[in-house]
């Protein structure tokens, strides 16, 4: 269930737009992960658990190892960011410093992966595919945990099933006001995945750079309200 609402009203639009950029980065990572690496997802662990069960049932060792790598990578990334951000309470106006640092670390990890991807022309061999798969899952786990730690200034960016369900329930059931940024986040996921696939078609060596660029852009955009808060120009909500 989506429990993090992106703030509106007098809060900077920079924050919800930065969240959309992170969602687009997630879409790009998932598209590359599933189609070019080991046919598992980097950030959608529900699907990976199902894929793991299917691989076990079909006695496919490669499928089992791919799903386990993704699960371990995601868990490690989430645990690392949870440790870094422990005890920090998020506010509605900006992301805390440790969340920003965690997202910068994610961008660096994605950039390293993009460099390795480009070095082999977008066609990694089996060993590099496993390394990139685990690294992509590590990055998505870190991003997911960072958004949890950011609190009210964030929203889920690596899994949107609960987001969509909550939007429908609040819109149809009228149990609360639906988040107007949800369609933008859903669209961002589609655009990110589509852009990654388009890059794989026309410039395969550069496709891996897209997620790193999007995460870096989100951090740069979020720096504006963060710096205003540091100067005392924003009142925490």
TrEMBL record:
Ranges in a coiled coil: none
Family annotation (InterPro entries): DUF1275 (IPR010699)
Superkingdom to which the source organism belongs: Bacteria
Alphabetized UniProt keyword annotations: Membrane, Transmembrane, Transmembrane helix
Transmembrane segment boundaries: 14-33, 63-85, 97-120, 205-224
Pfam families given in the database record: DUF1275
Name of the protein in question: DUF1275 family protein
Species of provenance: Streptomyces chiangmaiensis
């Amino acid at each position: 269930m989506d429990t993090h609402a992106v703030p509106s009203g007098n809060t900077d639009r920079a924050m919800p737009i930065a969240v959309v950029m992170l969602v687009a980065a997630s879409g790009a990572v998932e598209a590359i992960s599933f189609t070019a690496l080991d046919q598992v997802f980097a950030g959608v662990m529900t699907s990976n658990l199902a894929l793991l069960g299917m691989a076990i049932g079909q006695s496919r060792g490669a499928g089992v190892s791919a799903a386990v790598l993704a699960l371990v990578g995601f868990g490690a990334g989430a645990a690392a960011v949870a440790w870094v951000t422990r005890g920090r309470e998020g506010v509605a106006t900006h992301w805390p410093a440790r969340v920003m640092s965690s997202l910068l670390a994610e961008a660096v990890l994605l950039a390293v992966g993009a460099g390795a991807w480009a070095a082999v022309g977008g066609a990694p061999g089996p060993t590099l595919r496993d390394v990139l798969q685990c690294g992509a899952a590590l990055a998505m786990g870190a991003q997911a945990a960072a958004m949890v730690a950011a609190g009210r200034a964030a929203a889920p960016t690596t899994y949107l099933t609960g987001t969509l369900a909550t939007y429908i329930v609040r819109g149809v059931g009228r149990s609360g006001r639906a988040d107007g940024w949800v369609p933008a986040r859903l669209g961002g996921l589609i655009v990110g995945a589509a852009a990654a696939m388009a890059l794989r078609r026309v410039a395969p060596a550069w496709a891996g750079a897209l997620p790193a660029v999007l995460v870096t852009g989100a951090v740069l955009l979020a720096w504006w309200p963060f710096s205003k808060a540091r100067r005392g120009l924003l009142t925490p909500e």
